[in-house]
């Protein structure tokens, strides 16, 4: 097998195992689907009241706003907005020293954790993403995407997972220096909740803050995929939206690689 | 050429500690200091020392996850810290207190991932899996998630995992820690067979000296970062200034036996304990005692290796 193919088969195997690992917790998944659905319903009624006052707030029609809510609920776990996933494993392994085991394996640590997180993301998308969306569609009737929108949405979701992974990885890697990444993790949860579009679409933010929020990597989490689903990014604009996600993914993964190199140096050279 | 070559290896750590409200002072600790030894292919070496002696620091430098601050190490012709990835394909490491298996996955899946990580050829993988799974008695556990395995089972799983890619050297850090007597015995048997049949070089650190006695022909004792002994187990007893004990059961109680070359260390009724140097022969002593006293029974006790090592540390 050629090198590239071999690498791909390794990462695919990691992603598959990670998918399977999460799939063993069926009860947790069902409970999660229930929670997402309940939150979706509560937020939907809140949004309906809001949009009744201002029928085109943020440029969304009421039915689009409701769809936005359910996409947010669907992506919440897929992107691991409040952490969890492979990056939590990383923080834990740094704290207890098991990271040493990862370091002496002949495989890229960053690639390893990314593959594991993508496998997890796929599982959460297929369960905690799809199921609540069906609930939302049955109860409220969601706006469906065009064919291009659907494809764009799926691509955008994969990028959302990668961007979110890279951000979480950077925060988790702080454990190399702080020994415990709990504080940074809480900070990240607050930032992500606010700037991803989970609480409110970023387009509702006041001028100035809105432009900043839309440019931040957190916008890639929910705002961008949702807008693609809703057809608000089409044609060249769709490519630009996805392009921004790709840019963030590349920049952030690059930062992860640098941080990891510094961390390895610290562990290997300074000895912990 | 030796497989592992360690030359004046040193590692210092700078420890910062508070020395006042704002002031901090740095203390340099020499975890390993001018350590030198060589290990040939096929050897089984016990690497022992008290806590904090520098055992783990040495292993970390030999596996390349810690850079030495002085001296050099060459393992299988590679410089560990600089060629860590390359070296990783040729060595196996088992930490008694850590696992390289995936907690939520069945054993089989962990092995499957390792097959890909190390790019193990199909035939090698199948052969190793068959051999080690049978010998380590893992057959029924292959589909059990690792988190459900007992400590002994997990350790066996870890050892099988470390051997899948046919490493030339296997480092074992406290491999029997926390295991029951039966599991320990089985593990030692497996390691002995591995060394014998595959000529895998073993280096193990342990606090369990029975591991050493059961497995290792050679012992390196490290204390405060330097080797205080390096040689076969038998000469460790002698060089450690250890003594053997002749236990004499007399027919009648008697005052302390006075013979040349031995000293009475304890008297309890008709039983007396005589201490003599470990490298001396017991035969003339036995003859002297038998000639002078009515002896009911005799026995000779080898020095406990623990005592020998304790003496080495206290030097």
UniProtKB/TrEMBL annotation, chain B:
Domain ABC transporter residue range list: 4-249
GO biological process entries: response to antibiotic
Listed transmembrane segments: none
InterPro entries to which the protein is assigned, alphabetical: AAA+_ATPase, ABC_transporter-like_ATP-bd, ABC_transporter_ATP-binding, P-loop_NTPase
One GO CC annotation: plasma membrane
Signal peptide: none
UniProt keyword annotations, A-Z: Antibiotic resistance, ATP-binding, Nucleotide-binding, Transport
SUPFAM superfamilies, per database record: P-loop containing nucleoside triphosphate hydrolases
Chief place where the protein resides: membrane
PROSITE patterns linked: ABC_TRANSPORTER_2
GO terms assigned for molecular function: ATP binding; ATP hydrolysis activity
Pfam families named in the record: ABC_tran (PF00005)
Cell compartment(s), UniProt: Cell membrane
Membrane topology: Peripheral membrane protein
Protein name: ATP-binding cassette domain-containing protein
Organism this protein belongs to: Nocardioides turkmenicus
């Amino acid at each position: 097998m050629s090198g590239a193919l071999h690498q791909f088969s390794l990462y695919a195997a990691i992603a598959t195992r990670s998918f399977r690992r999460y799939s063993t917790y069926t009860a947790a998944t069902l409970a999660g689907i229930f929670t997402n659905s309940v939150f979706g319903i509560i937020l939907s009624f809140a949004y309906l009241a809001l949009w009744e006052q201002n029928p085109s707030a943020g440029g969304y029609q009421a039915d689009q706003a409701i769809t936005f809510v359910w996409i947010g609920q669907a992506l919440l776990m897929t992107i691991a907005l409040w952490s969890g996933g492979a990056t939590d494993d990383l923080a834990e392994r740094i704290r207890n020293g098991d990271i040493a085991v990862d370091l002496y394996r002949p495989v890229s640590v960053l690639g390893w954790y990314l593959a594991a997180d993508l496998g997890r993301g796929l599982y959460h998308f297929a369960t905690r993403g799809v199921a609540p969306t069906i609930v939302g569609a049955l109860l409220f009737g969601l706006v469906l995407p065009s064919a291009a929108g659907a494809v764009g949405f799926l691509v955008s979701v994969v990028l959302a997972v990668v961007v979110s992974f890279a951000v979480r990885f950077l925060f988790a890697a702080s454990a190399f220096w702080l020994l415990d990444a709990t504080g940074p993790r809480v900070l990240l949860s607050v930032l992500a909740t606010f700037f991803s579009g989970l609480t409110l679409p970023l387009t509702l933010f006041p001028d100035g803050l809105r432009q900043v929020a839309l440019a931040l990597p957190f916008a890639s989490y929910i705002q961008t995929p949702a807008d693609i689903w809703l057809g608000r990014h089409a044609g060249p604009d769709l490519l630009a939206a996805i392009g921004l996600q790709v840019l963030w993914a590349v920049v952030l993964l690059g930062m992860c690689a640098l941080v990891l190199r510094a961390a390895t140096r610290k562990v290997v050279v300074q000895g912990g | 050429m030796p497989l592992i070559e360690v030359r004046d290896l040193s590692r210092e750590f700078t420890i910062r500690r508070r020395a006042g409200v704002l002031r901090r002072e740095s203390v340099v600790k020499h975890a390993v200091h001018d350590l030198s030894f060589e290990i040939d292919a096929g050897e089984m070496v016990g690497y022992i020392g008290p806590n904090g002696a520098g055992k783990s620091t040495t292993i970390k430098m030999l596996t390349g996850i810690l850079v030495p601050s002085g001296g050099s190490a060459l393992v299988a012709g590679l410089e560990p810290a600089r060629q860590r990835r390359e070296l990783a394909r040729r060595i196996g490491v088992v930490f008694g207190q850590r696992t390289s298996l995936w907690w939520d996955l069945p054993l089989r899946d962990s092995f499957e991932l390792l097959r890909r990580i190390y790019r193990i050829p199909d035939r090698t993988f199948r052969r190793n899996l068959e051999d080690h799974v049978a010998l380590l008695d893992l057959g029924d556990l292959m589909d059990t998630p690792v988190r459900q395995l007992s400590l002994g089972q997990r350790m066996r799983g870890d050892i099988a995992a470390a051997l899948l890619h046919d490493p030339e050297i296997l480092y074992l850090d406290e491999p029997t820690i926390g295991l029951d007597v039966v599991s320990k015995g089985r593990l030692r048997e497996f390691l002995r067979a591995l060394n014998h049949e595959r000529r895998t070089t073993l280096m193990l650190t342990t606090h369990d000296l029975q591991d050493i006695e059961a497995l290792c022909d050679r012992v390196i004792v490290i204390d405060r970062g330097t080797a205080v002994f390096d040689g076969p187990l038998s000469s460790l007893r002698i060089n450690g200034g250890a003594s053997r004990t002749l236990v004499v059961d007399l027919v009648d109680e008697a005052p302390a036996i006075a013979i040349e070359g031995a000293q009475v260390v304890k008297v309890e009724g008709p039983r007396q304990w005589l201490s003599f140097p470990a490298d001396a022969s017991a035969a003339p002593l036995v003859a002297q005692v038998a000639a002078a006293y009515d002896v009911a029974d005799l026995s000779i006790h080898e020095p406990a290796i623990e005592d020998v090592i304790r003496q080495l540390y206290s030097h």
